Protein: PspC domain-containing protein
Organism: Streptomyces sanyensis
Amino acid sequence: MAALTRPSEGRMIAGVCAGLARRFGLSATTMRIIFLVSCLLPGPQFLLYLALWVLLPSEDKKAAAW
């Protein structure tokens, strides 16, 4: 499995869905659809997305650190 990072390619907004899709072996489109459908249910999905945007490292910064 790939490391949980926000990829530099394949982003639409912040790369959270693309990073999660890569980590769990799904397509980014599938992960985005899952996220959108989950937003129809009550819960903190949008807040979780924002938290992951802040907490997940970007591939750009990870590559620059090495």
About this structure: The chain has a mean pLDDT of 87.
